[in-house]
Amino acid sequence: MRAKTFLVAALIAAVSGAAAQAQTKIRLSYIVPVSNWATMLVQKQDLMKHHGKSYTLDIIHFQGTPQLITALSVGELEIANFGFTTLPLAIVNAGMNDLRIISDELQDGVPGHYSNQFLVRKDGPIQSWADLKGKVVASNAYGSGTDIPLRIMLAKHNLQDKRDVTIIETPIPTMPAMLAEKKVELVPLPRPFTANPQVVAATRTIGTTGDAVGINQLGMWVARAGVIEKNRAAFMDFMEDALRIERWYLDPKNHDAAVKIAMAITKTPAERWDSWLFRKDGQNGDYYRNLDGRPDVDALQKVIDLQVKHGFLKQTIDVKKFVDLSLVEEAVRRLR
């Protein structure tokens, strides 16, 4: 009897161990809490039907998207939330020709939705872009989705870093204070920072990312082709769970619950979120997010070509060669 009991226990342990080994670890990056899906997904594990079974999810914070290229190249991430600037840099400069766009995350500059703002002090000397000559402006990281539109907007007004203005790098959360303390004269800010009542009261908008580059794929999920194929079943399950959760957040009836989650993540009051989070209300609302996880490939191609035109990329790429929407297409089919 003892031997039989031991054998059963050993079999259970072996099966449990095999199941644990079968789980694929998916490490997903994020830059801005709440605006990037990673921080919101982990708050709704009740809707993750496959989490802990076929995959486990870890989220990792980065200051800017350029740092994601290294992390993805050395295997520190399975999925990176690249932007329209990072993808071509990774392909053209880093030679990562196996990258595949697998899902939309958020789009900037879509009519009727929010676009990142270029802000100056309301009581400051800057009334137009021409007034920035000889001044200091802020960026979070060279080549990021806020940095390149800033440089293109400056170029449109015949202003260039080191020649006409000085661009300094600083984390996004520090930018409002640096502007208020007159250390810089302009900051490019995304949501949720532009919803801070103190920022709203102290600043004035002189342009948006949409003004600079049009509709742009500010965030998209990117993975390496070999990693996708090796873990396709787990990635499929994760994408199903992710879309289920995203649709829950984007459903207006869940707005109040979503605001409470955003408050808990950031330890900030409801007034920072309530009026705009996941809402369509122009510059008073949120970014556009595709319910089926489909990126705007044509808009992405246009903004990459624009970067080449302004000298921020050596050459363009054919975006369609780097798209694999099979995961989101299967996820949409499962969720019907």
Structure commentary:
The structure is a single chain. With 336 residues, the chain is of the alpha/beta class. It folds into 2 domains: 22-109 and 216-277 and 288-334, Periplasmic binding protein-like II (D-Maltodextrin-Binding Protein, domain 2, 3-Layer(aba) Sandwich); 117-213, Periplasmic binding protein-like II (D-Maltodextrin-Binding Protein, domain 2, 3-Layer(aba) Sandwich), CATH 3.40.190. 38% of the residues lie in helices and 17% in strands. It is built from 13 helices and 10 strands. It has helices at 2-22, 37-41, 66-73, 86-93, 147-156, 175-180, 197-202, 209-213, 225-230, 232-250, 255-266, 297-309, 326-334; strands at 24-30, 55-61, 80-82, 99-108, 117-121, 136-139, 166-169, 187-189, 203-208, 216-224. Helix 10 packs across helix 13 (326-334). The longest helix is centred in the first third of the chain and has 21 residues, at 2-22. It is globular and about 60 Å long. The chain starts with a helix and ends with a helix. The model is unreliable at 1-20 (pLDDT under 50).
